[in-house]
Records
---
Amino acid sequence: MPTRIRSNGMSIALVINQLVSTMLAGIFLPFVSKHGYSSMFFLFS
């Protein structure tokens, strides 16, 4: 693919990755405090 298109795609992928990582980091500890570690890892699997 041309570099211009590839760079736009990677920029979008990076923003989505950062948003998902931030959301998971914000949700993880409150969910674990209510439901425990085993239910969180079961949800991820």
Note: The chain has a mean pLDDT of 92.
---
Amino acid sequence: MNNYELAVVFNGNLDEDAKNKALETVQEYVTRFGGTISKVDDWGKRKLAYEVNKINDGFYYFIYFQGESTVPTEVEKYLRIMEPVLRYMTIRIED
């Protein structure tokens, strides 16, 4: 099992319900493909470094999970097509 950190930035124009639903969906993808979530950091709404699709703000989340090497690939397949997701990045954390 490897440790991973998934950084996700959601559209800053989402309302509270849509933001929570998007976060739950991402967590569901991680667990569906065999990952175990250990921690979720909510950094709140922040200004983006540059404009993305005419959007200047985003909700930042960092999801820490454990799983096999295939989990990040499978999760990213679904993140790529999620409309509320502006950016995402998964990194492996060395032990």
Note: The longest strand covers residues 36-52.
---
Amino acid sequence: MNLKLSYIYHSGYAIEAKDFTIIIDYYKDSADNPEDGIVHKELLNKKGKLYVLSTHSHSDHFNPEILRWKDKKKDIQYIFSKDILDNQKAAAEHAIYLDKLDDYKDDSLIIEAFGSTDLGVSFIIHIKDKTLFHAGDLNNWHWNEESTEDEIREAEAFYKRELDLLAANVKYIDFAMFPVDPRLGKDYMKGAQQFISAIKTKHLAPMHFGEAYDKAAAFAEYASSKGTKAIQWRRRGEFIEL
């Protein structure tokens, strides 16, 4: 199956298949004027079903605007992390809510919720012969230059538990979307490095990097050494064909 993957902004991605589209963790559109961005200009007008996924309720991963898309797009399915309901960001009737290890299945795809080292969940998405992963805020969130040794050990152990669980259930990923956040300091790539060392990953697209395109792109060298092709985004709205 051919898929098109577009980088929207921050952790926001779109996956387009022949008969449906998935938008994950929409925060802002790919242009400063949303009406010029790929979501508003193209995807909300595209034929076929639209799945809208949110991994958790943080404002940079969940924009309440997405709940208004149903007024424009009739064939739409919202699939949210349960914390969005628990934190009263959306009502029970708005979406299907997944907690860790829950799943959603229909004729087009299977979505499995795994853990996070922050709020909410991460998503494994099976589309026919392709397996994709969106990490949400799953990462080795450590600030080694600022944290105490105990805090660093705790962050490492937390991440290892969630990564081990994922690796026990998923042996191969065609495309992963994963945080490579320079705000973490000198070891900002560490979580992504551990991820592709634990799970064979064909492609990895960085996210959660703000405007630091060069820093995010620098992950490609390490990724290549592990047999993973890391995407080097240069602007919002770029896409690749899978």
Note: DSSP finds six helices and 14 strands in the chain.
